[in-house]
Specification:
By secondary structure, the protein is α/β, with parallel strands linked by helices. It has 13 helices and 15 strands. The longest helix has 19 residues, at about 375-395. The radius of gyration is 21 Å and the shape is globular.
Length: about 400
């Protein structure tokens, strides 16, 4: 059996129509197939490869750590250099009082930990999240997701969850003294790149302070330079009580984190002891890759280039079939008339060697979120192929 047959026979499938693109090698913004196929990855593996595929410094950090040790012990017991150095590097990017890091394996796990922390710290039973939010697919993360299509088959879910309109001032009074936490994507991703105004975030922060609810910001997609700042909340002049990150954090390796103050995080130490546990969270190889990723973002000035690269895409990506482009940095949605008109464009773009996608809760918009390392020449090439795909699909 070849790889395609093995894939279909023995790997659990999540749709009846997987892309079935076979990749043999990846580097920078490029993916390579076994028969010489070449694709430009304009979605960064869904927001993961912010520093490109197989960045040399990430590979070097992984190889260095492989020569020392792999898994040693469950999280939080042994002093492991990659974990400790990564935690310090993360804290250095953040304002006070965000000085304590809990490392996990993924964004969903980071959300789960953040929810537990908020409930344990406040002693409150309820959580508020947003309509059309996406926070992951584990049981708790799904419970605070904001789209019923993905939730209804798994009910009953975690109780005590209510939803509000992202960016809607009128709903803020639904946050009350029973609310342990309000969980918000700083930039809504799967809703099709929706961006609330600064005044909304400041009003949200004020309301949480008034009633004693914790503000959890989900930057699983928006963090690590994607929006033109290291953290997306920096655009809005607020500080969360708990920050959640993953995806672009690991340079291609699996890792996530939830970050808060040492005082809040200390509740996991007592009543019960070991209040949150993970076996592989902060795996030393992933932690080493993440530390290298932070260094790359800072030393190669990738974040400072985001706005210029986004502007170049928007300047060139013009076609009568495009209704609008929404973006914060290189987190971008290109809106078309409908999914019916978009899907052939995405399919044709893949044939032309450019991989894009649509959004879970916004299927009339094309996702564009390339590695931050993408060059001007590569942008020109990618946009030209997308325009060609539009032309080919509408003639």
């Amino acid at each position: 059996m070849n790889n395609r047959q093995l894939f279909l026979s023995h790997l659990a499938q999540t749709t009846d129509f997987p892309l079935m693109i076979e990749i043999e090698k990846a580097e920078g913004v490029w993916l390579y197939g076994p028969k010489g196929e070449k694709y430009m990855d304009l979605i960064s593996g869904i927001g993961v490869s912010n520093v490109g595929h197989r960045h040399p410094r990430v590979i070097q950090a992984i190889q260095h750590q492989l020569n020392h040790y792999l898994h040693l012990m469950v999280y939080g017991e042994y002093v492991q250099s990659p974990q400790a150095k990564l935690a310090k590097a993360l804290v250095d990017t953040l304002p006070e009082p965000l000085d304590n890091v809990y490392l996990v394996n993924s964004g969903s796990e980071a959300i789960e930990g953040a929810l537990k922390l908020a409930k344990r710290y406040t002693g409150r039973p309820e959580v508020v999240s947003c309509i059309n939010a996406y926070h992951g697919s584990s049981h708790g993360a799904l419970s605070i997701g904001g789209n019923e299509v993905f939730k209804r088959a798994y009910r009953p879910l975690v109780p005590g969850v209510s939803t509000i309109v992202y960016g809607g001032f009128a709903d803020l009074n639904r946050i009350n003294r029973q609310t342990a936490a309000v969980v918000v994507e700083t930039i809504q991703g799967e809703a099709g790149i929706r961006i609330a105004c600064t005044e909304y975030f400041q009003a949200l922060r004020t309301r949480c302070d008034e009633v004693g609810a914790l503000l959890i910001l989900d930057e699983i997609q928006a963090g690590f330079g994607r929006t033109g700042k290291f953290w997306a909340f920096e655009h809005f002049g607020i500080i969360p009580d708990i920050l959640v990150c993953a995806k672009g954090m690991g340079g291609g390796m699996p890792i996530g984190a939830f970050i808060s103050s040492k005082e809040r995080m200390s509740v996991f130490k007592n009543n019960p002891l070991l209040g949150h546990i993970t076996t592989f969270g902060g795996h030393p190889v992933s932690a080493a890759a993440s530390l290298a990723t932070i260094e790359i973002l800072k030393e190669e000035s990738l974040i400072e280039q985001v706005e210029q690269k986004a502007a170049l895409i928007k300047k060139q990506l013009i076609h009568p079939k495009i209704k609008a482009i929404r973006n914060k940095g290189l987190m971008m949605a290109v809106e078309f008339e409908s999914f019916k008109s978009l899907k052939p464009i995405i399919d044709r773009a893949i044939e032309l060697g450019v991989i894009t996608d649509w959004f879970l809760f916004c299927d009339d918009s094309m996702r564009i979120a390339p590695p931050l390392t993408i060059t001007e020449r590569e942008i020109n090439e990618a946009v030209a192929r997308i325009i060609q795909a539009i032309e080919d699909s509408t003639n």
